[in-house]
Design a protein that fits this description.
Length: 242
């Protein structure tokens, strides 16, 4: 695992964007794994800037979002369908038909999860998976105790994650209780992983992921198993590393 510690959150976004850009330049039909949340926003902003400047072309790039809430209307601004459209698809100029987000409304959620896995495979697999990390060490919505081999499935959000994400909703109770998320096994199959974290509130999770034992107690520790994982963090997020 490669660890890159940078002086500022802005630089984290810029350096991580360069990793993604490199892949897209080499392979214009690259398949991106897309995280939501605050952490990757600086990456998307920098990629959008480069696309606007004519340096990058995302028109043939495919995207697969990591996760989605179950039962949250796609018209809700915090549904990941809406977030991906607003922060990735439009600003970068991806073709909407080439961007997939897990279905949080399927009558048969298990079948929809299996279909999502099949769609990733049919696209040739994910070239670069962008990841954030939860304060409890989750990646995607793979909460602590998630199976290290898990695939896309329904998960219950922990009280900690619902509390962390309450900032995006009108009240803590409005945060959905369940989600559909790519599994840890799905994430590990991506050819390259780029995890970004900024701020002191991520320091403990980063230390556990990078230096702790490989353990379902810290789902992000699965990055230790990947041959091409890069963790790009600011000094605050690095502050608990030994
Ligand atoms: C969301 C996701 C989550 C977030 C994590 C950190 O798609 O994958 O694992 O990356 O909850 O969220 P932020 O970046 O908002 O702190």
């Amino acid at each position: 695992m490669e660890i890159v510690i940078l002086p500022s959150a802005a630089e984290v976004g810029r350096v991580a964007a360069s990793v993604v850009a490199e892949v897209v330049v080499r392979k214009p039909e690259a398949v991106l794994g897309l995280a939501t949340g605050s952490s990757p926003l600086a990456i998307y902003e920098e990629l959008a800037r480069r696309a606007d400047a004519g340096e990058l072309d995302f028109s043939r790039v495919r995207g697969f979002a990591l996760d989605e809430y179950v039962g949250l209307d796609y018209g809700h601004p915090e549904s990941y369908h809406a977030v991906i459209d607003r922060t990735v698809t439009r600003p970068l100029g991806l073709a909407p038909a080439l961007v997939a987000v897990p279905d949080g409304f399927a009558a048969d959620l298990a079948a929809a999860c299996a279909a999502y896995e099949a769609a990733i495979d049919a696209a040739g697999g994910i070239d670069v998976q962008i990841l954030g990390i939860g304060g409890n060490g989750h990646i995607g919505f793979n909460e602590p105790t998630s199976s290290l081999a898990s695939r896309t499935r329904i998960k219950t959000l922990t009280p900690k994650t619902r509390e962390d994400n309450a900032r995006f909703f009108d009240s803590p109770e409005a945060v959905p209780t369940h989600c559909v998320t790519q599994g840890l096994g799905t994430i590990l199959r991506a050819r390259r992983l780029v995890l970004v974290a900024q701020g002191e509130n991520k320091a403990e999770a980063i230390a556990a992921a990078v230096e702790g034992p490989l353990s379902a107690s810290c789902p992000a520790s699965v990055l230790q198993l990947h041959e091409h994982a890069t963790v790009i963090i600011d000094e605050a997020a690095a502050s608990r590393l030994r």
